[in-house]
Design goal:
The structure holds 2 protein chains of 2 kinds. By secondary structure, chain A is mainly alpha-helical. Chain A has helices at about 5-20, 30-55, 85-110, 115-135, 140-155, 165-195, 200-205, 210-230, 235-240, 245-255, 260-265, 270-275, 275-300, 305-325, 330-355, 375-390, 395-405, 410-440, 460-465, 480-500, 505-515, 525-545, 560-565, 570-615, 625-645, and strands at about 60-70, 75-85. Chain A has a two-stranded antiparallel sheet. In chain A, strand 1 (about 60-70) and strand 2 form a beta hairpin. Chain B has helices at about 1-15, 30-50, 55-80, 100-120, 150-155, 165-175, 185-200, 210-240, 245-255, 270-290, 295-305, 305-330, 335-360, 365-385, 390-415, 430-435, 435-450, 455-470, 475-500, 515-535, 535-545; strands at about 90, 95-100, 125-130, 130-135, 415, 420, 510. In chain B, the strands form 3 sheets. In chain B, strands 6-5-7 form a 3-stranded antiparallel β-sheet. In chain B, helix 2 runs antiparallel to helix 3 and helix 2 (about 30-50) runs antiparallel to helix 6 (about 165-175). Chain B starts with a helix and ends in a 6-residue tail after the last helix. Classes of the chains: A mainly alpha, B mainly alpha. The interface of A and B includes residues 606, 613, 620 and 648 of A.
Amino acid sequence: MENLIALLVAAPLVGAALLLCGGTRLDRAGHWIGSLLAVASFAVGVVLFAGMLGRDAGHRALHQHLFSWIPVGGFRADVAFQLDQLSMTFVLLITGVGSLIHIYSIGYMEHDARRRRFFGYLNLFLAAMLLLVLADNYVLLYVGWEGVGLASYLLIGFWQHKPSAATAAKKAFLVNRVGDMGLSIAIMLMFTTFGTFAFGPVLAATGQTSEGKLTAIGLMLLLAACGKSAQVPLQSWLGDAMEGPTPVSALIHAATMVTAGVYLITRSGALFNAAPDAQTAVVAVGAVTLLFGAIVGCAKDDIKKALAGSTMSQIGYMVLAAGLGPVGYAFAIMHLVTHGFFKAGLFLGAGSVMHGMNDEVDMRRYGGLRKYMPVTFVTFGLGYLAIIGFPGLSGFFSKDKIIEAAFARGGTEGWILGGTALLGAAITAFYMTRVMLMTFFGEERWRNAPTPSPDRPSAEPAAETRGEYAPPHPHESPKVMTVPMIVLAVGSVFAGGLFSIGDAFVGWLEPVTSFSHGHSPVSAGVVTAATMVVLVIGVGLAWLMYGRRPVPATAPRGSLLTRAARRDLLQDDFNHVVLVRGGEHLTRTLVYLDHSLVDGAVNGTAAAMGGLSGRLRRLQTGFVRSYAVQMLGGAAVLVAATLLMRGV
Amino acid sequence: MSAVASVHSLWTVAAGVPGRIPAPKIEYAQLAPTLIVLGAAVVGILIEAFLPRRSRYYSQLLLSVVALAAAFAAVIGLAAGGFGSSKAHLAAMGAIAVDGPALFLQGTILLVSLIAVFTFAERRLDPAAHGRPGDAFAPQPAAIPGGEAERAAEKAGFATTEVFPVLLFAVGGMLVFPAANDLLTLFVALEVFSLPLYVLCALARRQRLLSQESAVKYFLLGAFSSAFLLFGVALLYGYAGTVTYAGIAEVISDGARQVDPALAGTMGNDALLLIGGALVLMGLLFKVGAVPFHMWTPDVYQGAPTPVTGFMAAATKVAAFGALLRLLYVVLPGMRWDWRPVMWGVAILTMLGGAVLAITQTDIKRLLAYSSIAHAGFILAGAIAASADGISSVLFYLAAYSFVTLGAFAVVTLVRDAGGEATHLSKWAGLGRRSPLLAAVFAVFLLAFAGIPLTSGFAGKFAVFKAAAESGGGWLVVVGVISSAIAAFFYIRVIVLMFFSEPKADGPTVAVPSVLTSTAIAVGVAATLVLGVAPQYFLDLAGHAGIFIR
């Protein structure tokens, strides 16, 4: 059974190799090969899952050792896999959602000349992501971590002819490097602390290690998670990453890769449990990000960027839950899975809308689309209900549990965290309702020519210059796109409920993450009721602002907060002032120091040596008599020194 | 050989009972390398006396090459016969050691000398005078420079083919020097190889006054230092009542057991031991060119004919360091804590002094002379490590360094202008543009001197520094690395000069050498690269050879 594990990674890896090296011969079949191999990987995952269910809870983990990768003295990095319940969950999510998005992309990328390459990159991403979640040690995990980073970079910049896409790819890459540095430092610290980086020994040894070291490792892991999962302060790349094709946004920047940080924290749970300070940092990052993302999501008119803000916010929930320790790990992963369904569904829906609207992304240019795209409307609507936590749908079960766990933290902290989570839920309801209303309801704003606005470059400059406006013809997408959306919508509706029957999901994960019931100062019923109240408030507020009143086709100036949120709460301005300017100043200072101090010292030494040499040279007179005197003196010193040494 | 044996038998006779003169037992087979070389030297003198002038050159060349090759084969045979390890013992009544270090060093000296013979025999570089090829040596060395006799000798086509037997005599002495196992043999060997070298230094064809001056300087200072050494020998005899290495070592470690009545006042007196030991060391340090006994080096290296300089720089250093190693490891290990601090000081002065002084040199031969001083310092750092690694690292360094040096001086002979060799550095500007191959070869040698990885210089330097650091000389290594950095400056400066400067209009030409010098240079490059890329085999060889017999 365990020999199948490598096959999970191998299938998409072979696909990537074939499609990227195969050349134009594979142009016509490339998308089928890529999709087939993704589905094959999913099939292997299902077989392994069935096998795992067949064993009792204590013996579910499988291990496969392929080869010793870097055996150098005490340093030993293996290529070895570990498939336990946590990895299994991810495998099914990655290959399942991945396969659906491969299929969707067949339709979405139909007219793209570089479709083969696109599928090659997607397969590469799958392989790297599976490697990340299957690795049994941190070094191999790091390989996968960098692999998904590479795939993400390639796919964000897939439309490289657009300068904005190229810039966005570069930005994502650079910001991620900061996080990657955290992971590599964490791995080095692990090696010096534990002498190994296999999950088993490292996590088992946390009990005998000083808390300071564990806190340091934990903070470095958190930095890594912040980079990959777009958490404050390394969140700035995710919004720009929406420049990539929409299936990429759905798979990588919503459902799977961005949740790798949550995986990392959950996987290192034992380490974080022993380092409460690091956990507090995790919780703080999660709480701040969930509000940050939500506020940004409220102000964006670009449908994908609104969803990106939402992704950031939802991952904030997961990180918050993961930071709560054994109380929250299972719920973090549960929310991760349900979020994988509904957010992927929402993105695919957004892609479907764009597909029918000539790639227009501005929601102010949408409106009333429910009549033209019924399937998209229904699937998107179900995803919407799931994310805002409508009772009975997936998001309701997972998010509710997180809010409850946040209150269970206890004390003032518990109230703050619980309150933040509740406030986040209200804002989520607000901005998602806003997206829903602006896109599918209201008047059909796309019928009129856009009014040129200095803020917003038009999607169709060519039409504008011609002076005539051809309105798009919204239409439903082909089956190959709608079927994956329907499947994901089904998941969005039922997954949460299914997981919660008899606490099935928690019980499934408990052997890996451990679980403890929190003691909430407020009862579960009260929390649910409060969630419902804030949900109604959020939806009602959005309806008042965007449902009852017509949506202006051009964005109004808005309040100070709105304007700041439109600029992603000034994240780029902050980075520019602090990092770019600061970096420039630092460089200038260093260059100055290099010129004056370092070069000065070097040149000074050289001059001193030359001077010394010139002086000493004068001893070399050319006269034998002076040589002989020097030798005599040397001999005298030699003898004297020898005698002195003995003390005779 | 005759000199060694007779001195030794005199000594044993003097110490023995009158009336019964035991015949000394001489293991001729084990002394074969030395005997072959000295025998060939004698034959060479006979050739000079009896063969007609025109056939002397080829006869001498053939004889020297055959003798050196045969002697090398004999060394290999001895080593293969186990004399380097299990069967190592003292030959010729305890006067000569036949052991690993001796055989390794003798083998190195013989190979180096063989290549040196090639550079001695080069006759294509100097422009032909009166239709006859000229070598690096004066036609009639006794003639007054610039005088009528000189011109006549040149016109008559004289050639100083005596250099070959003289070289062989020097080699013979060098073979005995690192194998000498008592102080008198050591002294005799020193003189046997020094006197021919003084003569060789005076034989330059060009710039004869400079050459003769260098020979006189070398002779005077050499005699001066020999006197110190001899005085040290006398003091050590007073201390121990014997001149054999083992005997002195025994007295140092166990005290004098049988006090000779004639020496009752001096035996076991540590002051004699310390002063005598220091003076003997000084004599050897003079030969290796260590600071503050180095002053002769640049003057002699500059004045001597370049092939002779190359031979001296390579072979003398091997022989002298061999003798120094044996003295330190066989005679003086019991007083390690007396000589080590002093030698540390000498090593530091030598490394820094050589490197610093080389910076301002403008003559390539003087630059290489100071470089050889700095290298003597590096080797000293390994030699005083007082460990098995110290011995093997020094053996390796000597082998590696001697080939580089010989090759570098061979290159110097090729760069010429109207006045002979163009040794001023300014004339080397832009050489890389005019003769890229030659400049590249020289650059390889310079990089090896500087100790850049993938050259033998790096492997050797690494080995001696490692040995020094492991025996507690960490700061010695720090100084060594600093001097290496200083030294790298002037090596690299020459490379920059050759490749990145504009060639001068009246720059030197590069002579096309015959197969002889080409072979010497090629062997130098090959040894540099092989020992640099795959040093382990040779390090192991040096490691196996690194045990002195006592």
